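TASK: fixed-backbone design
INPUT:
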C-alpha cells in the first residue's frame, strides 16, 4: 500500500534518524518530521536542522509542555496513578499527547500516514497506535521496526554511519533513554542484567542521595481541587511547577527507582527511572487527600489505582473506560484543597504537615483525652455486630 505523505514522530535519536532516511528510500513520498517538546531539555533547533539534513520535506516543532502536564500528568496525579508500585508512568503519559498532536499535524498537512520509532517488543508501539486509531482510524500506520530487516540497534548504527547520519549512542554505551518533564527512563544495553547496579553516571535529573545536602529542605505545596498550584506561596503554571520541583527534588536525590516491570506485550523488562518532581507531588497529594476525603470515597478511589494505571501504561488514554474512571476520580477531588509541608532529605520525601479548610480531621473527635462527642460504651455494640458472622461461623464449625 502506497503512502502519499507521512508524518514521522521524530526525536533526532538513533532510531528515528534512521527511520527518516529509510522512509524516504522505501516510500518515496514527502516526509514530515514532527518534533514534540515535552520537556526533554534538548536543542530542538539542532534536531530540526538534523531532520532537514536527513531528508525531511517539512519540519514541525511543537511545544507541548503545558498541555502535557496540565492534561495528562495532573489527571494521573489526581488518580495517584502508579504502575506496579513504583513506576510513575512518565513515558506512558507522554506518548498520547505526542501522538495526538501528530494526528493533528497529519490533518493540517494533508498526510495520509503516520509513523513512529517504537520497537516491536516494547509498550510504546501500542501507546502510539491506539491513540492514532482512537483519533483517526483512517490514517495508515507505519511501524518500521515491524517492517525492516534490521535486527537490533547495532545494525542501525552501521546504517547511520553508511548514510552519514550522526547518532548519539555508540556500541560501547548502547542503553536507551527517554526524557520528558516528568521523568527520564533508562533501559536496554548494560542495564539488561537485573543484578547489576546502574552506573551513577547515567543519572542526569538527580544527584545520588549520598552526596545530597546534609541539611533538609522544607517546602509547602498548595493544592486546589487535587491539582498543585503553588510552591512556598509562589503560583506557577503546571509545567513551571513541575520543573521547579524537578530541580529541588533532584538536588536532594529524590525520585530514583530501579524496577523489573511487566510490559504489556508479555515480557519483563528492567527499567531505571528518575522522577523527582512527580515523586514529590504524589506523596503530597496523598497527604492532602488523607484529611479531605471521606473514608469510603478514599477506599473506593484507592481500589481503582491499579486499573487506572494499567490503562495508562497499556496505552488506553483515549479509551472510554479511562475517561469514565477520570470523571469519577475528578468528582472525588472537589474538596481536595489545602497545604502540605514536606521535608526533603537525602532521597527521602517526608510528610511533616498538612492543613485544609475542608479537613475532616477533628482533634476533638480523635483525642485520647476526655471529650464530649464520643461515648466509649457505643463501641461494644459496634464490635458485637461486626463480629457476629465470625462468632456464628465458629459456633457452627464446632457443631
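OUTPUT:
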Amino acid at each position: 500500500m502506497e503512502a502519499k505523505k507521512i508524518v514521522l514522530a521524530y526525536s533526532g535519536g538513533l532510531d528515528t534518524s534512521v527511520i527518516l532516511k529509510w522512509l524516504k528510500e522505501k516510500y518515496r513520498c514527502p516526509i514530515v518530521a514532527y518534533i514534540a517538546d515535552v520537556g526533554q531539555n534538548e536543542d530542538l533547533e539542532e534536531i530540526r536542522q538534523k531532520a532537514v539534513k536527513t531528508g525531511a520535506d517539512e519540519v514541525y516543532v511543537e511545544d507541548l509542555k503545558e498541555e502535557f502536564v496540565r492534561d495528562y500528568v495532573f489527571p494521573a496525579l489526581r488518580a495517584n496513578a502508579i504502575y506496579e508500585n513504583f513506576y510513575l508512568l512518565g513515558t506512558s503519559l507522554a506518548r498520547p499527547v505526542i501522538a495526538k498532536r501528530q494526528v493533528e499535524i497529519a490533518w493540517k498537512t494533508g498526510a495520509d500516514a503516520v509513523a513512529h520509532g517504537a520497537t516491536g517488543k516494547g509498550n510504546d508501539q501500542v501507546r502510539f497506535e491506539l491513540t492514532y486509531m482512537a483519533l483517526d482510524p483512517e490514517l495508515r500506520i507505519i511501524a518500521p521496526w515491524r517492517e525492516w530487516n534490521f535486527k537490533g540497534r547495532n545494525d542501525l548504527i552501521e546504517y547511520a554511519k553508511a548514510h552519514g547520519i550522526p547518532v548519539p549512542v555508540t556500541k560501547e554505551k548502547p542503553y536507551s533513554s527517554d526524557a520528558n518533564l516528568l521523568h527520564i527512563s533508562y533501559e536496554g544495553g548494560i542495564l539488561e542484567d537485573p543484578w547489576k547496579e546502574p552506573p551513577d553516571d547515567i543519572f542526569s535529573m538527580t544527584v545520588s542521595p549520598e552526596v545530597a545536602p546534609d541539611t533538609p529542605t522544607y517546602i509547602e505545596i498548595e493544592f486546589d481541587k487535587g491539582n498543585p498550584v503553588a510552591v512556598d506561596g509562589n503560583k506557577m503554571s503546571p509545567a513551571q511547577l513541575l520543573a521547579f520541583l524537578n530541580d529541588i527534588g533532584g538536588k536532594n536525590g529524590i525520585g530514583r527507582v530501579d524496577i523489573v516491570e511487566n510490559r504489556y506485550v508479555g515480557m519483563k523488562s528492567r527499567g531505571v527511572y528518575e522522577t523527582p518532581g512527580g515523586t514529590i507531588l504524589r506523596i503530597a497529594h496523598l497527604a492532602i487527600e488523607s484529611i479531605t476525603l471521606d473514608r469510603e470515597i478514599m477506599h473506593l478511589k484507592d481500589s481503582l489505582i491499579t486499573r487506572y494505571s494499567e490503562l495508562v501504561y497499556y496505552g488506553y488514554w483515549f479509551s472510554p473506560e479511562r475517561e469514565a474512571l477520570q470523571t469519577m476520580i475528578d468528582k472525588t477531588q472537589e474538596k481536595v484543597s489545602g497545604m502540605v509541608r514536606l521535608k526533603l532529605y537525602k532521597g527521602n520525601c517526608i510528610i511533616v504537615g498538612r492543613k485544609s479548610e475542608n479537613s475532616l480531621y477533628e482533634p476533638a473527635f480523635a483525642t485520647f483525652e476526655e471529650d464530649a462527642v464520643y461515648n466509649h460504651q457505643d463501641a461494644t455494640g459496634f464490635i458485637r455486630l461486626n463480629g457476629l458472622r465470625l462468632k456464628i461461623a465458629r459456633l457452627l464449625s464446632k457443631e
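COMMENT: The two ends are 75 Å apart (CA to CA).
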